[in-house]
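WARN retry 2 of 3 for item q-0093 after timeout on previous attempt; input resubmitted unchanged.
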Amino acid sequence: MHGAENQQCVSVVIPTYNRAEIVRKTLQGYAAQDSIGQILEVLVVDDGSSDNTRSVVEECTRSLLVPVRYLYQQNSGLAAARNHAIREARGDLILFGDDDIVPGQSMVNEHLAWHRRYPEPTAGVLGHVAWAPEVRATPFMEWAGLYGPQFQFGYFKPGMELDFRHAYFCNTSIKRSFLEQNGFFNESFRGYGWEDIEFSYRLYERGWLLRYNPHAIGYHYKFETFEQTLRRTEQVWWKSWPAYVRTESGKRFFDLLCAQRMRSDSETKSLVRRQLGRLKRAAAPLLRPLMDSRIKLPDKFYDFVWYHYSKPIVDAAFSQPNNVDDYGEISRDTVTGGAPEVTIRK
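OK item q-0093 returned
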C-alpha cells in the first residue's frame, strides 16, 4: 500500500458472460453504495459475450455516477477475465465481485473498514453472500448457501480466519500489491469451478490471511432448483476436477476430503447403521420432490437427500484418472448406482 489514505482507492472486478440485464442491476448496486466516492473504478470484463453486454455497460457508464470501465476479451474463461482486470486495475484494493452478485448498500464500505482494521499487505476479507430477496429463495437454496454445495457461511463466525477452501472470489477483497507480487489466476482453468480455490491456495502458501466479515453483504441474483444445483455440481466435478486435482492445491484438497470421508465411513460401519443406510437410500427418491418445496424442513433432511444424489458424482471424480476421457473430463457413463434419477447427459 502507498499510505493509509490510498486504502480508499478500490477497483471492483466484475467478470461477465451473456448476462447483460443482470450486469445492469449489479452496476446500479455499486452506484448506490454509501461509499461511492471511495470506488476508483468498476472494471467489467466481458468474456466474449454474444448478447448486448457492451451496450448495457456503455449505457451504465454514461448514466451512473460510479466510474465504470468496459474491458473486452475473446472468450477465455473466468480466470483469464479476472487476470485481465488485475492487470488493468489502478486501485490499491481490489474487490472481486461477480456479475450476479448485487452489492448491499454498505458492502464496499465494510470491505474498506476491515482493511483499515487489518492493514497488513497479506490481509484479505471475505464478505457474506445471501440470496437476493427478489428471487424468493427456497429453503433448499437457503440451506445450500449456509451449509451445502453453494457456500458454507453457516459455519463461519465474524472475524474468523478461513482456510484456502473458502475463498469465494465473488465477494472477496485483497491488496493489489500482494496480488502483483504473488501471481495470478491459472488461466488453464477455462471452465467453471476450482480456479478460485487453486489460486487461493497459492496465496495462502505466501502468507495470505482471509477473514470473514458478515456485514459486507452481496445479494446473489439467481434462482436455482435442486436439479440445477446437481447439474452445476456435475460441471464442477466432471469437467474441472481432473485439471484441479493435478495441482498442488488439488492434491491438498483431495487429502483433506479423503480424510473427511474416511471419518464419515468409520461412523457407518455398524450393522444397525448399515441397515438404516439402506432404508434411507430407498427413501431418497420419494423425498426428492420436497427439495424444491417452500415448506422449511430440517437441515438434516437437505443434507441427507443432497448427499444421496451428489455422492455418485463425487465418487466418479475420485475414480479418475482411469475415467478421464480424451478431453480431460470425467466420462459420464462411469457414474453408476445409488442415484438413478441423476440424468447422465451425453
